[in-house]
């Protein structure tokens, strides 16, 4: 397979004003990555002829493949063609089939076609014209001096249609892509990004295929593995080998691969073991239950729960003893254990889990913000209790408490 | 006011792989635009020393202000400092206050600090160091040869904190911006972006100060007003005038301004009226309660709730009559009313609210995906019941149900 280095350039002042995010570049990058093209740069430039031309000149000097989105429309601001003409010296002509389509569109809508709309049918003389099946302006592939330029509309729907129909097949051709690219995301919980990288730094540094990239996410840390090979089989084997090596080091924190996020993993483990769960949530306010229920098919294993934010709900609805609360406080190991036990009994489930603690901003019961107790029990009334001291905002403390609950549950179910 | 031309550079291979979109550049662009700075380019470059340094070199030749996000973390991949050192020839030193903070963080968490975390405290010797109040790595402002470089973490929360606390005041200083810029975000619920724009299109088109920009968000629609004037007083008056004009048209959907999001507004209205609330949630799985409890100070008005995802929980814990469920089904007006009433009684609150419906992917009780009943009752057993037909994914249906609940509650409390 031929190595191709690409860059993606978006043309449009609306991006520089922050009116929209450059999600086109994100989407195209995902596609190029899958097909083994290296993306080295994204650029965004406004609707200014000189600056667009300068940006194109630079791309001409450094990239094998340049994908440009936007600036192909009918208005004065749409300058992509004019800017590329300055750089390429190519001639522009009217593309009759595209013009016919544009004229037909206006006729059908009963609208007058203003003269500037003709511009949308303009293409470079030697271009491979890409049909726009969902809009007006056609796309183009222009090959010049061993370099390939792809021009696409900025409207995401039109851009994606041309990428799928024309650009991806073209890329497979120019990359002489006979090799297969496979990737895998490994998900971890209860370990930081730095610590995880530290544990496997020698593996990361000593190998290039698959590549290994750790990344922190809201629900843990992921490692992305990307393998290149002559066959699916070889690529899969490369991924599996590396996965095994990584799991030997940090397997105790492993959740699952690809779409198997912690909430999905918990739901599938509960199903596998035939266990049901209910939660008693104080500071987390329903966040734990809501995360589980967001997984489709959760209804067979997650019955629901009691959000007992108020102390009265802990005693009157859940049935935690007033004595426990008077003697130990609501933020205590004893209260957490009773909460887990009571919610399990009340909702008649196999597992009960509870969260009680202080999200802040104010301390309660003379205990510090961030102190959280999480208890887990089952039908044999075996308890796991975790005392945690979390830091950060109210939101962060509540999120960390839920994640710690998932971690405890994962370890219990594994 | 001095004209400043800026560019924004994001460093991170995850962007080039399309794992995330460059929303940092969008957010920073909005801010710079508010403060009258021209943004001419966005760039994204991967974690590669030479390419990051090349990108910095180019920025050095063309921009007055360069804002760099990402690459300040603890791992080998974090190369922003090293790349800027190649370009600037500046020395790097350990910033003791930042290192103390990082060490304290690990100590407090009871976690071992791996050596690579020291790197996060490295700064350029002549830098103006920006405190990271929500994370570890500090930011920096480096001024060199009439050019200003701002280095910020890639984590959006950390980046935004430093922009607000340090970078915006710095920008006002270097732009010699003596005119006052005041902005206001007006929040709306229960109306779409297109409909809202349609209702006030003449106001939008006929005025330039303040500018009026509607934007759809996850919890409704916002309108951002930005006024420029010689004094705070004049700017505030301009904002208030426009706010009043807009409220005359769409006031019935108005939630609040700036940080007054719908959940905060609900909590403050509950406090104001001295009312408490409890929720019985089926398809929403605790999402409504969790949103309210995320607001600090919620404990005095939000007692908690019952997540009755399973039918048995609706009957056995909440006390919905088996007859209602047998005759009308769980997804019915009758069931919703009983749920709201029972949760109010059980948790002894002024208001009860309930959510029952079908988030999908499968229909239940021969009723379609997206059908949701929301009921609201108070001590006079007055009922508001809303039957909704929502469209979209499981996640979208659950989110829309919670928002509709907020809307009903807002109208009830207003």
UniProtKB/TrEMBL annotation, chains A, B:
<dbReference type="InterPro" id="IPR008136">
    <property type="entry name" value="CinA_C"/>
</dbReference>
<dbReference type="InterPro" id="IPR041424">
    <property type="entry name" value="CinA_KH"/>
</dbReference>
<dbReference type="InterPro" id="IPR036653">
    <property type="entry name" value="CinA-like_C"/>
</dbReference>
<dbReference type="Pfam" id="PF00994">
    <property type="entry name" value="MoCF_biosynth"/>
</dbReference>
<dbReference type="InterPro" id="IPR050101">
    <property type="entry name" value="CinA"/>
</dbReference>
<feature type="domain" description="MoaB/Mog">
    <location>
        <begin position="7"/>
        <end position="174"/>
    </location>
</feature>
<dbReference type="InterPro" id="IPR008135">
    <property type="entry name" value="Competence-induced_CinA"/>
</dbReference>
<dbReference type="InterPro" id="IPR001453">
    <property type="entry name" value="MoaB/Mog_dom"/>
</dbReference>
<dbReference type="Pfam" id="PF18146">
    <property type="entry name" value="CinA_KH"/>
</dbReference>
<comment type="similarity">
    <text>Belongs to the CinA family.</text>
</comment>
<dbReference type="Pfam" id="PF02464">
    <property type="entry name" value="CinA"/>
</dbReference>
<dbReference type="InterPro" id="IPR036425">
    <property type="entry name" value="MoaB/Mog-like_dom_sf"/>
</dbReference>
<protein>
    <recommendedName>
        <fullName>Putative competence-damage inducible protein</fullName>
    </recommendedName>
</protein>
